[in-house]
Amino acid sequence: MGEVRPGPAHERLGVLVGEWVGEEEFAATPWAPAGTARSRHSLRSGVGGLAVVHDYEQARGGGDPFLGHGFFTVDPGTGEVVWFFLDSTGFPPDTPLRGDWDGEGVLRLAKTTPRGQARHVFRFHGDAFEHEIDVRLGDAAAFSPFARGRFHRV
Q1: What is the 3-state secondary structure (H, E, C) of 110-152?
Q2: Which domains does the chain have, with CATH numbers?
Q3: Could you read off the pLDDT of 98-115 as tens digits, one per residue?
Q4: Dihedral (CA of 73, 76, 82, 86) sign
Q5: Closest C-alpha to 123, from 39, 26, 15
Q6: Which of 5, 14, 6 is nearest to 101 (CA)?
Q7: What is the band of 17 on the pLDDT scale with cuts at 50, 70, 90?
Q8: Which residues pair with 120 in a beta bridge?
């Protein structure tokens, strides 16, 4: 198997790279109550340009921080953006989120797990981005808003 080299799809992920801070609002879930948080996304290029490595830290109400780590890359077979992500809830990343760019500056990703389904939308505007997460948990009939965040580059 030949070596995969970064291409235009990998380069497009470069919009993610940087240090980002912002505020998030969360709906209640079986894992946590509704609330707000101050969060940081630290994203850097890695694996010779084939991935964007992601570290996440969220501070809510004086408790222990909520942490996450993952990476974005491009599936060479499908061209889809994939995002593997593990967080401090402890559930392993059994499957990545998958999706693609929707126009200029909008990345849409989704995944299904035994706990439900999640849809993420990242909207980039220069040195700012919005991150929306909608979920459908258990046997719910429809998706509902879970998180809304606004971040700026520092």
Answers
A1: EEEECCEEEEEEEEEECCEEEEEEEEEECCCCCCEEEEEEEEE
A2: 8-153 (2.40.128.20)
A3: 999 998 899 999 999 888
A4: negative
A5: 15
A6: 14
A7: very high
A8: 109, 133
